[in-house]
Amino acid sequence: MQSPIERMVRGEDPVKAGAPVCVLRQIGGRRLFPALALLVIAFCAPAIADDKKEIKESSLEELMNIRVYSASKHLQSTSEAPSSVSVITHDDIQKYGYRTLAEILRSVRGFYISYDRNYSYLGVRGVLRLGDFNNRVLLLIDGHRINNNIYDQAMIGSEFAVDVDMIERVEVIRGPSSSLYGANAFFAVVNVITRKSKDIHGLELSFEPGSFGTYKGRSTYGGEFRKVNFVFSGTFSESAGQNLFFEEFNSPATNNGVAMHADDTSYRDLLGTVSFHGFTLQVVSSYREKGIPDAAVHLCGRANSCGSFDTVFNDSRTRNIDRQQYVDVSYEHPMADKWRMTLRTFFDQHRYDALYVYATADVSGPAEVLNKDLGHGTWTGGELKLDRSFQKQKLTFGTDLRYNLQQDQVNYDVNPYLLFINSHHTSFNWAFYGQDEFAITSKFTVNAGLRFDRYYSFGGTTNPRLGLIYRPLEKTTVKLLFGDAFRPPNAYEQYYAGAGLSEGNLRLHPETIQSSEAVVEQMLGQHYRISGSVFHNKIDHLITQELDPANGLLVFQNSQKARATGTEFELNARFAGMQGSVSYNFTQAENGGTSRGLANSPKHLGKLNFSAPLGTPHLFGSVDAQYESLRVTEGAGVVGGFPIVNLTLFSPQVQKHVALSASIYNLLDKRYAFPAGQLLEPPFVQDGRNFRLKMTVHF
Amino acid sequence: MALIWFIAAQVATGQSPGASEYEVKAAFLYNFAKFVEWPPNTFSDDGPLRFCVVGKDPFGGELETTIQGRTVGGRQLAVWRPHSAEESRHCQVLFVSISGRGVVKELLTELRGAPVLTVGEDREFLKVGGMISFVLDEERVRFEINPISAEREHLKISAKLQALARAIVAEGTGK
Fold first, then answer.
1. Is B1 near chain A, with CB under 8 Å?
2. From A659's CA, which of A54, A134, A247, B68 has a CA 20 to 30 Å away?
3. Is A156 helix (H, G, I), strand (E, B) or coil?
4. CA-nearest residue of chain B to A54?
């Protein structure tokens, strides 16, 4: 890789008055970081003295661009929420070098990730079911639900529809929230708030090269014209991926176990948000194509047509494409008598298209068969919410409507043409909810909510939530939280039938969770916050794929349960430009019926995030680290515990208008893997040490 | 690791790299005075333009440092700490710090009829009659304006200041 830092530095002007500059010089090789840190200190320290004189002489515009450090407000604001909330800001994303939403979520207390070289999956408090579609978390973009309508999947890896650098803030609302949000708000609600024109002001260009032949480019423009605020952003990214080795195919006939050029990723994201006078119009369009290097190793991909045929190993034609688009219009308006109305309507489309290459055993016909698997969904709907604040109370009422215009699943062989699955459905659901936040005394607040959802397929479900928030002292908060949530059966579980292999199940009903949690949050002085919680999750009616004894076909049934109990601690600190958090989660998760430990469930999760300025406000060094204890795989094998350490050096202003960052991921070059979905399947090995450089220019 | 040692040294010597929040807010207050017009008979003599602080003083001398040796509209500047609402009426720029929150509404009512530019630190301040409020937006100091409160005391906030405000919160009646 070239050294853009060095190239930039050589062309630089000497220090201008009023613009303290920290000069970076790159030293090659692996010992970059400590040597760089020392040099940075040497070059930057003298620049500090100039800053003080500057501020009182600054103009209004200059004052507005100065970064200041203030701890307590940021730490305290999430204490008032009726659940346990974690917030990750745009600033955090730059400092810690997060490349995807999955990497952001991996740093959250109690959360963990799995990646199968195709999609990323989120586990919360000990539960991440193997082979499932990541539909136990509700993912929102600016309040717009993005879980698709075939798999209800929350796409959080490179398949997420928005560039991670266009995120202003991620709000992770822990706990079941179906009382407000409805379906799939099972373990958490993740609301991704995108950057608006007030956050951008002008043109921003970004370029980042990284390991494995990866590069990403983004251009964003934000501005205001006659009271209309707008942001437009486009991102493209290509990654060649790695040539991966699989022991199972280690023979000369199958390229000695190496899958070549099969781990590629490419994506394009477009985002446009326009707002004026309470109206917001947002358009999102994203495309992601992923080569699937391990389809042969993990025989049954989503095609679910495994058994008679084997996917050909080392064929880079095996891949899938996800296309997502939506238009969302929302309108917020204060009404008569202090009520506020929010109206939203949307139109979404998601297209999943996959191609698998199979070898046939049939000697007389073609040696290989191309199989296409697709899931196309279109949906539309509206939401109306009314809320009003009284002196001691805040009332919210709302109704949601969703019409699934298209839920198509098709699977066929191209040549000779054989149609296996041909499922077309439409469906409809609506809901009504209410929530009351009542301050009984100045120290004690009750938050109660209830939502009724009616589904065309399985009928109705009612989900309550109760939060008791007690603040005995200004700096202490105690919360008792109880809530129910549900995950409805998705179109795949209900309708994917055919091929003589699987049958649908129209009698499926939703999975349910009943959760209770006690949390204590304490501010220590202005700069520290510590919190601890104890929780219990009771999960029932888990939809599981089984063999129908009557006909030997695969079918989904509400047949399992899980129980998870645990405790969590977190310490947050913020002062003088430094910020950090340490968290620990202990969860005991069991299969409800048998009290056997749950597969893919780490008992211990530790997170460490720390960021500090290195001698100047213009350079930050940050550590993003996680530790996970071992996970049991489906076949009672074990996947080892591992620490992952990521380091990022970030300069928000290496030159005026230019930000630069350099990151090392998996610093310790730990070889780690995640359990796979089927019995006897080998685990998914993850990446070793890799790098990324990023430069952003603001005009 | 050299990095950790260096950070520890920084913290130990009490040197905080970068700008302190109140240093920046003090500079803002000075700038507010430059872009606000007080009604004609505000100043009865050649007395100074007074910056006042009510509640626990968070500036630690920064306000004095900021105004030292400078003028606004040809007028000298001074920092003052009033002891009562009555005394506060003689201020031109009055900063209400967070710890004074409990008495804010009362104080603002007592200031009616006096041409005082009131500056606070949360949006609630604007809703109970305050004029400008500081807001921290991702480590940067921004401000929001309630023009109705300013108009009520015949203070003119210049268009430039209004344009740079993060939000205009026009609440309350003009009377």
1. yes
2. A54
3. coil
4. B19
Q: Is A442 on the interface with B (CB under 8 A)?
A: no
Pairing label, strands A528-547, A578-591: unpaired
Contact A390, A337 (CB under 8 A): no
Q: Which tokens sit at A419?
A: 């149609």
Structure confidence by residue, pLDDT tens digits, A450-464: 999 999 888 999 999
| Burial class for B157, CB neighbours closer than 10 Å (0-12, 13-18, 19+) | buried
CB atoms within 10 A of CB A602: 23
Å between A80 CA and nearest CA of chain B? 16
Query: Measuring CA to CA, how many Å separate A217 from each of A96, A220, A235, A264, A268?
Result: 19, 10, 6, 17, 10
Instruction: Give the gap in angstroms from C-alpha A483 to the nearest C-alpha of chain B.
Output: 32
Q: Which residues contact B44 (CB under 8 A, 6 or more apart)?
A: none
Task: Give the distance from residue A525's alpha carbon to the nearest chain B alpha carbon, in angstroms.
Answer: 15
pTM above the 0.80 mark? Answer: no
B64 to chain A: closest CA residue: A56
In whole angstroms, give the CA distance from residue A280 to residue A251.
58
Q: Which residue has the tokens 């900063």?
A: B95
Q: CB under 8 Å to A156, separation ≥6 — which residues?
A: A100, A101, A102, A105, A120, A121, A122, A134, A139, A190
d(CA A325, CA A155): 13
Q: Which residues of A touch B18 (CB under 8 A)?
A: 51, 67-69, 576-577, 613, 617
Q: Give B-chain residues touching A56 at CB under 8 angstroms.
A: 23, 26-27, 30, 65-66
CB contact (8 A) between residue B136 and residue A68: yes
DSSP tally for chain A: helices H, then strands E? 10, 37
- Contact A196/A231 with Cβ under 8 angstroms? yes
Q: Is B158 on the interface with A (CB under 8 A)?
A: no
Which residues of chain A have a pLDDT value below 70? 1-54, 67-82, 297-310, 361-363, 365, 617, 636, 678-680
Using a CB–CB cutoff of 8 Å, tell me whether A73 touches chain B. yes
Q: How far is CA A397 from the centre of its chain?
A: 28
Side chain identity at residue A610, one-letter code: F
Could A38 and B16 be called an inter-chain contact, meaning their C-beta atoms sit closer than 8 Å? no
Residue B167 near chain A (CB below 8 Å): no
Contact B99, B79 (CB under 8 A): no
pLDDT digits (tens, 9 = 90+) for B100-134: 556 787 888 888 889 999 999 877 788 888 999 99
Answer yes or no: do A63 and B24 touch at CB < 8 A. Answer: yes
Q: Which of A68, A95, A200, A389 to mutate to test the interface with B (most CBs of B within 10 A)?
A: A68
Q: What is the DSSP string of B101-146?
A: GGGHHHHHHHTTTS--EEEESSHHHHHTT-SEEEEEETTEEEEEE-
Instruction: Tell me which residue has tokens 């070239």.
Output: A2
- Report how far apart the first and last C-alpha atoms of chain A are (Å, whole number): 26
B24 → closest Cβ in A38, A68, A575: A68
DSSP state of A615: S
How many Cα neighbours within 13 Å face the side chain of A85?
20
Q: What's the pLDDT at B7?
A: 38
Q: Which residues of B touch A34 (CB under 8 A)?
A: 1-3
d(CA B120, CA B133): 5
Min Cα distance A65 → chain B (Å) is 6
Q: From residue A2, how far is each of A28, A175, A215 by CA, in Å?
A: 10, 45, 13
Residue B8 contacts A where some CB pair is shorter than 8 Å: no
Chain A residue with minimal CA distance to B21? A68
Q: What is the largest CA-CA distance in chain A?
A: 86
Cα dihedral B88→B90→B91→B95 (10° resolution): 10
